[in-house]
Amino acid sequence: MSSWVIGVVTTAAAILIYRLFQLITGPSVRLPPGPSPWPIVGNLPHMGPVPHHALAALARTHGPLMHLRLGFVDVVVASSAAVAEQFLKTHDGNFSSRPPSSGAKYIAYNYRDLVFAPYGPRWRLLRKISSVNLFSAKALDHFRHVRQEEVARLTTNLAISDSKEVNLGQLLNVCTTNALARVMIGQRVFKENSGCYDPKADEFKSMVVEVMVLAGVFNIGDFVPALEWLDLQGVQSKMKKLHKRFDAFLTSIVEEHKIYKTEKHQDMLSTLLSLKEASEDGEKLTDIEIKALLLNMFTAGTDTSSSTTEWAIAELIRNPRILAQVQQELDTVVGKDRLVTEADLPHLPYLEAVVKETFRLHPSTPLSLPRVAEESCEIFGYHIPKGATLLVNVWAIARDPKEWANPLEFKPERFLSGSEKAHVDIKGNDFEVIPFGAGRRICAGMNLGLRVVQLLTATLAHAFDWELKNGLSPQNLNMDEAYGLTLQRAAPFLVHPRPRLSSHYEFMLPWPKPAEVYTFQGEQIATDRVSHLVKLPMHLAILTGNGVIKGWKLTILEIPLSSLVDKEDWTTFYKTLAFIMFGMIFFPFHTDTMDHAAMDVFFT
């Protein structure tokens, strides 16, 4: 029998089943209002190319609590703070699991991850492991230097781009991915130099974006099971291919870690591998669960932060007055001779307001990840059926004119002390703005995401002025959205960074500056970033990495210390030190031309 005949028979059977389903589940209860469904596909055609926009428009007609029928699945949509609070606080326990989905099945290792796992003991174990080792206050503080070093790398690459056009989104994604990778697997995964990016990073970014796009698709097979095997949209085929690519990447990381792991490793993957033996609860983790957790972190943990920072900088460029006020606050608190640190963030209330306003207008997840009703319940007098899927329109709630004055205006002042929303936080306690969700399934990485977005936004606003491609007016900047599970910009964000701090060299120094800055013939000279500092009085300046000196009288011995010195191998260190001393003897220079010199050794 040909495939088209099978398709016709299947469709006819689906119609018959749908009619029987309608008769059995007739309108005997009071469901929330909503648009009339089509046969078989229900309200799927109403979702449009950008579902959070379409659902917001439907809510203006049918109200903030809507009922839709997507295929054979009941779906309820919350589009106001009051309705969201009922679902995510009052009835949170009933809506703590995820509904079945092809994304969880084909990409997320068949629900073996943290994001899509059903609520229960296994999910609680994965949540606890992630919280303790990656997202706790102690863990965040322990790895603070990693985030600051990666932001410094980004700043350096922007500074040495010589104000050329850069794709800020690409560089931000490299930064957030490398920062997380160093915590997760103990090493950076992408390289970059001279303001350029590793081509592998572009490929990885495209994979992450594809995950988010596919995960955000309303796949017909999820809602009409009889049609799943046809894969009418080609979604399942794409998911399977993408899963193979991610699995190969993650498998290589795990296997390499098994071979080279030592007791001195302090990254999360080493901890996860140790839990393969036995956890505190006597349960073991499998390789599949470990890879599933890594997949969550490398997708949700990187793309959301970099995309939100893109939106923040775009809004600042479009609003020069606000950018100037942010820069004034940063110059007052931080000064212009060093970079921002995470320790500065609590002292920057206007910057905090800018970040809150960015999360309000551009939430990283515009539609909450779906939840499912374990039992039927009643919300505001309406019946919510058992098994119904819940969607919270985070994007619409944060633009609700009943909650926000001038909701489409980028206005950070609304969050400042004495203003209308001064009391509102974005951590799931105030339902008019919930970019990280709320309740039991609130984003596990919320505190990390906030720190990263605040540090990146502060640093980019502080260290640079910004111009758009081809002299484009800020008011003409394309702010269109590309829909996916996360909120991407529709067009690449191409900008020209113009350094505004005291010296390019300062970008290469850590916080607070442990290195000596010295002068040669009126030129300020600085070394590359330093994680350990060794000082010896000597007549030789040794610069590593991107160190630059102008002037021909100074003899420089450049040694690739990052390849010679291993912080775990002190024998190599002493050999390197001897080599340096040898260089001091045979490459002298006149001491009267230099105020001071120090040897700075950068351990990578």
Automatic annotation (TrEMBL):
It is a single-pass type III membrane protein. GO terms for molecular function: flavonoid 3'-monooxygenase activity; metal ion binding. The keyword Oxidoreductase applies. Its main location: endoplasmic reticulum. GO terms for cellular component: endoplasmic reticulum membrane. It comes from the Eukaryota. Heme binds at residue 443. It catalyses: a 3'-unsubstituted flavone + reduced [NADPH--hemoprotein reductase] + O2 = a 3'-hydroxyflavone + oxidized [NADPH--hemoprotein reductase] + H2O + H(+). Pathway: Secondary metabolite biosynthesis; flavonoid biosynthesis. PROSITE patterns: CYTOCHROME_P450. Keywords: Flavonoid biosynthesis, Heme, Iron, Membrane, Metal-binding, Monooxygenase, NADP, Oxidoreductase, Transmembrane, Transmembrane helix. It holds the Pfam family DUF7745. It is found in: Endoplasmic reticulum membrane. GO terms for biological process: flavonoid biosynthetic process. It is an enzyme of class 1 (oxidoreductase). Catalyzes the 3'-hydroxylation of the flavonoid B-ring to the 3',4'-hydroxylated state. Convert naringenin to eriodictyol and dihydrokaempferol to dihydroquercetin. This is Flavonoid 3'-monooxygenase. It comes from Flemingia macrophylla.
